[in-house]
């Protein structure tokens, strides 16, 4: 009878889910928890300006709660459903990591091998000397590849985009000696993706689709946008001017193994159940899953009691071990957190890049475990957006002032109230200084992200708030207006007759 009730409940939920009307899956005894969760999510979604959120909780092999909030498309007021697809960002890495472990189990590679065994041309240097990098070091982010290498990932939709991406490393020196310390670099997993291609003799996306997603039952998930044949994908957004802004970033097909599986919470529930010991299949037995959760302790923890495994962060907190990972793409974010001892998992997907996604996921886990929750969350993108919005307001005021002064000067020239001055002597020096100062300011603004962060403005414009991009161009426009105004002042002067007349000394236009 219990099994029959479960089947009927599942069918009802499936039908409702397909129509976008699914109510949250929850048992009566958990209603107090779910009320807290729903209040928290709605509150944090409002603060964060995230348009749409999909949330799922699994426990002991069952989906015990599934709820959707907000819109997959704000303009069209299309609600998020359990079938809505999102880019899952860096939570993709666990799929790539598990594939590497499976290929090792099948005897097709060894994680202790040098990556050059599988990609012979990938010769990387540290302080001018060639280095040996193992597959394990790529898995655990201890390869020495710099974190800011993400800025070099090329925009591409080509079928060879993965190889083109990995080849960018040939022009980048390692940031540290391989195996010495942890440094998160997303491209580590793109290199592993190319290893998978070379070992299996098939494209990464096809291997993951057929050998990983399908066996798990993730039939509605895709490996990259080029596979996508669904209208269920959520529109992506960025923060900008204190609200969500629709944005479509470039395609990075070469970055798929590190961040571009596209899925929904229904499929991610199956993925979590596999990780927690349920939905076991021949391709991925529990020994292999546990191995993927095994942390690398050969290097220091990257955070307090936090070590990296094969696409997972392993965190020890209050005598409990959590397996988790967050994902962030320019217009999407995700977070998966699991507590293996309780066979409990929480996943959250959203259509905005925001650290609120991670904080909401952690808070939901805390609520389900009966802990108190703090909602004092901040997001770096929101902070940048607020600063940029204020600065842009100030720049706009300056623009108006400079434009008015410039127009007044031009009007005076047209009315012959100003006259040209010969460019010589002192005026040449003034023009040179004016040009150098404005040029130096512009060059500094253009180069400062590269100097401080190793990023270009193009990268920041793709990943950062919309207001940052407008501020950048606004500053350039202000500088140009100021420069033109300064040049006009230097090269012209008030008409001599006008000056004498206003001083009362002499009027050149008088008759006497």
Present the secondary structure layout.
Elements lengths: L1 H17 L12 H18 L3 E8 L2 E12 L4 E2 L6 E2 L5 H13 L19 E2 L2 E2 L4 H5 L21 H7 L19 H14 L3 H13 L5 E2 L13 E4 L2 E4 L9 H4 L1 E3 L1 H11 L10 H7 L13 E3 L4 E5 L2 E10 L2 E8 L4 E7 L5 H13 L11 H35 L3 E3 L5 H28 L3 H7 L2 H26 E3 L1 H8 L9
Antiparallel strand pairs: 1-2, 1-15, 2-3, 4-10, 5-6, 7-10, 8-9, 11-12, 12-13, 13-14, 14-15, 16-17
Helix pairs in contact: 2-11, 3-6, 3-10, 5-6, 12-15, 13-15
Main attributes?
512 residues, alpha+beta, Beta-lactamase, eight-stranded antiparallel β-sheet, three-stranded antiparallel β-sheet, globular
Tell me briefly what this model is.
Residues 38-354 form the Beta-lactamase-related domain. This protein is an alpha+beta fold and 512 residues long. Helices cover 44% and strands 16% of the residues.
Structure explained in plain terms:
This protein is of the alpha+beta class. The chain has two domains: about 30-380, Beta-lactamase, CATH 3.40.710.10; about 380-505, no CATH class. Helix content is about 45%, strand content about 15%. It has helices at about 1-20, 30-50, 95-105, 135-140, 160-165, 185-200, 205-215, 255-260, 265-275, 285-290, 355-370, 380-415, 425-455, 455-465, 465-490, 495-505; strands spanning about 50-60, 60-75, 80, 85, 125, 130, 220-225, 235-240, 245, 260-265, 305-310, 315, 320-330, 330-340, 345-350, 420, 490-495. The protein has an eight-stranded antiparallel sheet with strand order 3-2-1-15-14-13-12-11, sandwiched between helices. A three-stranded antiparallel sheet has the order 4-10-7. It has a two-stranded antiparallel sheet with strand order 5-6. The protein starts with a helix and ends in a 9-residue tail after the last helix. Mean pLDDT is about 90; it is low at about 1-25 and about 505-510.
């Amino acid at each position: 009878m219990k099994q029959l009730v479960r089947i009927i409940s599942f069918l009802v939920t499936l039908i409702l889910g397909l129509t976008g009307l699914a109510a949250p899956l929850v048992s009566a005894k958990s209603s107090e928890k779910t009320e807290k969760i729903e209040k928290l999510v709605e509150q944090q979604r409002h603060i964060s300006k995230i348009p749409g959120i999909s949330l799922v909780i699994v426990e002991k092999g069952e989906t015990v709660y599934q709820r959707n909030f907000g819109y997959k498309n704000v303009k069209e007021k299309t609600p998020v459903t359990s079938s809505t697809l999102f880019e899952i960002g860096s939570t993709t890495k666990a799929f790539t990591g598990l594939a590497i472990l499976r290929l090792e189990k099948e005897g097709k590679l060894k994680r202790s091998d040098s990556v050059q065994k599988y990609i012979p041309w990938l010769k990387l240097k540290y302080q001018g000397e060639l280095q040996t990098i193992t597959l394990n070091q790529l898995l655990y982010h201890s390869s020495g590849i710099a974190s800011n290498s993400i800025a070099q990932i090329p925009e591409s939709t080509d079928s060879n985009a993965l190889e083109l991406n990995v080849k960018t490393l040939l022009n980048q020196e390692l940031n540290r000696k391989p195996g010495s310390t942890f440094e998160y670099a997303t491209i580590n997993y793109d290199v592993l993706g190319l290893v998978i291609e070379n070992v299996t003799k098939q494209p990464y996306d096809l291997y993951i689709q057929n050998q990983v997603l399908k066996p798990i039952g993730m039939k509605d998930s895709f490996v990259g946008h080029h596979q996508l044949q669904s209208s269920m994908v959520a529109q992506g957004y960025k923060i900008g001017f204190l609200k969500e802004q629709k944005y479509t970033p470039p395609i990075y097909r070469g970055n798929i193994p590190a961040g571009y599986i596209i899925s929904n919470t229904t499929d991610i529930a199956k993925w979590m159940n596999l990780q927690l010991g349920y939905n076991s299949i021949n391709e991925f037995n529990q020994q292999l899953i546990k191995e993927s959760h095994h942390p690398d302790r050969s290097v220091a923890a990257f955070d307090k009691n936090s070590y990296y495994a094969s696409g997972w962060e392993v965190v020890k907190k209050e005598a409990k071990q959590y397996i988790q990972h967050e994902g962030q793409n320019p217009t999407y974010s995700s977070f998966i957190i699991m507590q293996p001892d309780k066979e409990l998992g929480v996943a959250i997907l959203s259509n905005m890049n925001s650290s609120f996604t991670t904080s909401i996921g952690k808070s939901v886990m805390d609520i389900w475990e009966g802990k108190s929750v703090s909602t004092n969350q901040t997001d770096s993108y929101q902070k940048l957006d607020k600063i940029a919005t204020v600065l842009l307001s100030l720049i706009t005021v300056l623009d108006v002032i400079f434009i008015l002064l410039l127009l007044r000067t031009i009007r005076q020239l047209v009315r012959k109230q100003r006259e040209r001055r010969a460019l010589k002597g002192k005026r040449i020096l003034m023009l040179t200084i004016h040009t150098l100062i404005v040029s130096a300011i512009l060059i500094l603004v253009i180069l400062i992200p590269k100097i401080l962060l190793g990023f270009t403005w193009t990268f920041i414009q793709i990943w950062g708030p919309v207001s940052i991009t407008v501020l950048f161009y606004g500053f350039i426009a202000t500088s140009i207006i100021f420069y033109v105004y300064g040049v006009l002042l230097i090269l012209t002067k008030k008409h001599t007759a006008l000056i004498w007349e206003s001083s009362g000394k002499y009027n050149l236009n008088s008759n006497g």
